[in-house]
Design goal:
Layout: H1 11-20, H2 22-32, E1 39-43, H3 51-54, E2 63-68, H4 71-84, E3 90-94, E4 107-113, H5 124-134, E5 135-153, H6 158-172, H7 178-188, E6 192-202, H8 208-221, H9 227-243, E7 248-258
Helix pairs in contact: 6-8, 8-9
The chain binds S-adenosylmethionine.
Length: 262
């Protein structure tokens, strides 16, 4: 069984990112086509990032279940739920993707965002088999992930920028290219109505420092660049923010499909 992955995520970062990527999340909810009686599973739910917004679409007979391996995420999700005062059927369950505590075909909608990227590519088939088991025939899945190869930062030294991004993407993330691989998974499993959409995320004031400090510090830790080069990166990006010439963005891939009849 592949290692589970908590990695770099924490509740504050996930909440900040969710605010800046609202347009992507909204589109993923539309693609999910939730109905009043839908039984929805959100995998890697974090601190109720998508479970609470998704509850807007269900009625009394519908249900939203978020599952996450990390007990801290589940505690934060339950706290958010309590504060939101939502009376719909929303539940957060601690569980591992590799042994999901649900019955076969229990859900008719599955949503997951930035999940495949936290596992090595070699785990993708096992993860999908787990999702496929709990999704009912004719049930719909929506998967969203980033393609880190599309991360682009307006920086004076192009070669240096590519070196940082390439190393960060290929060596420091379990699967930084997960976004572009999602469609293969659905095709391989003969899913119907497969659709692929691309949505950009331009780094704004909430995420830019976090993202770019994170990338540069990981590459520095790996001794791929020197401290002086990291300082140059930080200084130039700070200057660009001040001057209004800062520009950095990434592409997110949204893939949806319908499970074939058994
Ligand atoms: C990058 S975060 C994405 C969170 C959320 N979907 C969002 O859009 O902000 C990945 C989440 O997957 C959870 N996770 C990691 N390994 C897991 C596993 N083996 N089973 C279930 N959840 C896991 C992490 O705890 C984390 O909350």
């Amino acid at each position: 069984m592949p290692a589970t992955s908590k990695n770099y995520v924490n509740t504050k970062w996930l909440k900040n990112l969710a605010q800046e990527t609202r347009h992507i999340k909204q589109r993923s909810y539309q693609l999910l086509q939730v109905k009043l009686d839908s039984q929805v599973l959100d995998v890697g739910c974090g601190p109720a990032i998508d479970t609470i917004p998704l509850s807007e679409f269900i009625g009394d007979r519908g249900r939203i279940v978020g599952v996450d391996y990390d007990p801290e995420m589940i505690a934060a999700a339950n706290q958010e739920l309590k504060e939101s005062k939502i009376s719909k059927r929303v539940q957060h369950v601690q569980g591992n993707i590799f042994s999901l505590p649900f019955q076969d075909g229990e859900f008719d909608r599955i949503h997951l965002e930035r999940f495949f990227q936290v596992f090595p590519k070699s785990s993708a088939d096992e993860i999908f088999a787990a999702l496929n088991r709990v999704l009912a025939s004719n049930g719909r899945i929506v998967m969203v992930d980033m393609d880190l190869a599309s991360l682009s930062v307006n920086f004076g030294d192009d070669e240096f920028e590519r070196k940082v991004i390439n190393y960060f993407t290929l060596k420091r993330r379990p699967n930084g290219l997960a976004g572009r691989q999602l469609v293969d998974i659905l095709r391989k499993n003969n899913y119907n109505d497969v659709s692929v959409e691309l949505i950009h995320h331009q780094f704004g004031s909430l995420t830019r420092d976090y993202w770019l400090n994170w990338a540069i510090s990981e590459v520095l830790d790996a001794k791929i660049i020197t401290q002086a080069e990291a300082d140059r990166w930080n200084q130039e990006l700070k200057r660009r923010v001040k001057e209004g010439s800062f520009l950095a963005y990434i592409t997110n891939v949204l893939v949806s499909g319908v499970k074939p009849e058994n």
